[in-house]
Amino acid sequence: MGILKDRFKAKADAANIEIKELLKEHGNKKIGEVTLAQAYQGMRGITGLVTETSLLDAQEGIRFRGYSIPELQEKLPKALHGTEPLPEGLFYLMLIGELPTPEEASHVTDILQRRSHVPNHVFAAIDALPINTHPMTMFVVGVMALQTESYFAKAYSEGINKKDYWEPTFDDAMILIARLPRIAAYIYRRKYKNSEHIHPNGLLDWAGNFAHMLGYDDASFRELMRLYMTIHADHEGGNVSAHTTHLVGSALSDPYLSYAAGMNGLAGPLHGLANQEVIKWIFEMQEKLGTDLPAREQIAEYVKETLSAGKVVPGYGHAVLRKTDPRYTAQLEFGKKHMPEDKLCRTVWNIYEVVPPILQSLGKIKNPWPNVDAHSGALLVHYGLVEYEFYTVLFAVSRSLGVLASLCWDRALGFPLERPKSVTTEAVKLWLEGKEQIWE
Ligand code: CMX
Fold first, then answer.
1. pTM of this prediction?
2. Which domain holds residue 86?
3. Residues with catalytic roles
4. Which of 5, 28, 279, 403 is a plausible cystine mate for 388, CB 3.0–4.6 Å?
């Protein structure tokens, strides 16, 4: 690969310098409807998608159908003796657009329970992978194996009328959501608990049963799972997992294919995988410093080392948010209530005091505040769920609620194939020289 790789590197280095210069001078020029800088730099600030289930405000954070996280915690139905919202209720809200009564939320629970049986070939597909496979890879393989069940794929091959697309999409979405906890728990028990699997408990709610199948029957862990599955469910439409699910779905790929694609995006370290990276980073800091409760000055030193090694501080920053993520705050409050003395949680809270001013001082980071991933791992570790490579799978199970409710809406509203225009740097240069304009 030597010569080819070297040539590519030389070309890429030169192009990087050239594009930087080009954007310095022409970044604010409009290329079609957007600026050149937006086209080159991740499409920030472009409103080009419709997602009905939730809306993100840069200062305030996420609202699901108009309701903030504290409002959801107050208004959504709870499990018996529980205080955290039932994610089934949030799914109802995202799908129907109205807050469910306890009976309506429990109807969703019933639908999911009745459809939760996972066919054996899905487990066989997971078992075919080496045990050291990352849990997210096992998860997506499990979802892809389940695609054999798709009503949408079957209906399409039999010639369904396009006005009816939404219906098999809806059926696939419900079945997929119903089965994901079992698939995820299977992966967890296979990889970390010697394949000692736990049967579902048909009397429990969706998240409570998930906690049970993972092997954590503590009542407050079940509450954590209900909160976790609620707050990670959706974050409007432009994030990588939601956008990918929508994009792939726009080709009329069925919900299994679309969701699996989205979860491959969630498995990236700048997105959902950041939750494992946070705990890995803290564990490495503890080991290096030889303490499980590092002082703020020690944390500051470690943060600076991370930055000077050219790495990001995981769990901090956001492409849209410009304040502390309310999903972080909800978890912080859970920690203060259930485990105020926990050393790892106290470390997470100390990091919150130390990191923002350091990131701010760099002058280039638009949001120095923590996101959802900065806190979730510490709560899980408290209950003994220390296998941090599994954390993104929890995020993925939750994210199904938002992206699949959205996919039902995509089909119901007949959204078309998504296909934005792209350009080459060569074409941009010709345009800047006034020679060619290919985007109009
Ligand atoms: N640590 C170090 N540098 C950071 C940083 C962080 N936490 N956040 C942003 N930056 C850097 C960017 O890498 C970029 O650097 P360059 O100009 O050298 O490329 C610069 O600051 C400007 O970035 P930005 O406009 O503020 O942020 P982006 O919109 O480009 O990126 C995000 C957003 C989330 C990818 C980024 O903040 C990040 O990498 N954070 C750490 C990873 C993380 O926690 N991801 C989880 C996000 C939530 C989720 O999706 O689950």
1. 0.96
2. 1-27+38-272+400-440
3. 271, 318, 373
4. 279
